[in-house]
## 1
Amino acid sequence: MSRFQGKVVLVTGGGSGQGAETCRLFAAEGADVAVADWNADAARAVADEIGARAIAVDVSREAEVKQMIAAAAQPAGRLDILVNNAGVGYSESGRFRMASVVDTPEEAWDAILAINLKGVAMGCKHVLPIMAAQGGGAIVNIASINALVAMPGADAYTASKGGIVALTRVLARDWAPKGIRVNCICPGGVDTPMIAGVVEQLAAENRELHPIPLGRIAQPAEIARMTLALASEDASYVTGVILPVDGGATAQ
Ligand code: ADP
């Protein structure tokens, strides 16, 4: 299949996990891919593997996002698909701790919202005029099933992902007349570094509250394949959709 021959694709958070897998699948189907990540080495490694371009970016900073979009669009003079996948979760070992609202320090709240939600908004802000000028495009935002059902103890993360869902709907409505489709994927548990950092007690609580009918968490490619589907012409009549890819967890 080469659904993306001649298409320019930018994936944020493309340096690891499902973002990296998304880059691989787009490249395998002929896309000209730009891999963006704040981990420049990780972005470079994925880009080298698939013959793509690497862009270092912190999506929480508008100036960097603006440069990222310009750099991705510059060689071909167009940018057909943006996947807003960069995000931070809630690892005990990482910069942010999974916490209820009463235990979340103000800096963590600001940082998680800035990366997960403002990062998506800024990506859209700078790509939409380009897509409108070229006559269309597709944006896929990666949220989480946290946006749809209550998961214990990740309040800032949940709020950021809920914001992505709401933002997707308004952008889909506002930009449809310009031929731009905006959709959102809500992954459940995915076998990536992010989930590996989730403390076992909370992971067990989540499994109990929201059992997965398919009986297992997702492989990154299972999320990435749905991202490609929404970005492709197969979804030419689909916009504003919030699609859980969760093994049935939110069907309960
Ligand atoms: P998942 O694959 O489940 O989404 P990961 O933690 O594996 O989770 O991937 C998230 C990606 O987003 C990582 O590659 C990480 O470096 C990237 N990322 C996180 N924060 C930012 C940021 N502020 N700017 C750019 N990339 C980021």
## 2
Amino acid sequence: MTGRTRDREVVAAAVIQGRRLLLAQRTRPPELAGLWELPGGKVEPGESPADAVHRELLEELGVEVTVGERIGADVPLRDGLVLRAYRAELIRGTPRALDHAALCWVDARELREIALVGNDRGWLPDLVTLLGG
Ligand code: C5P
């Protein structure tokens, strides 16, 4: 590292199977509980974003994925965090809600109607396109 200030990255995964996207329902904080998101979390120091997607989905969903290309635009969060979405493909396991209230698979029409967390809403057009919607 050069010591220069860099945004710390939060990763989120777009897991798509066929024409459906996997969403996870948050349990916390109270203002976000019940809303749906692309699963993910903070990149740890020394970890690549792809490694973080892999780790987070193992921890949160109990699955292994391969991580693909970035999708959508960066979302600036508080405290120098930046949220980025990546495609991910399931290679092992069936997703379970280990850290969320529930999981669901949505098609393009359902995605447009579901209550997403605000930070993830900007990705809607990109996600709808990926779902062939
Ligand atoms: O899930 P976790 O609390 O580790 O996420 C870190 C931050 O990223 C939180 O502020 C969370 O709201 C945000 N986040 C988000 N959209 C996602 C995943 C995380 O806004 N799909």
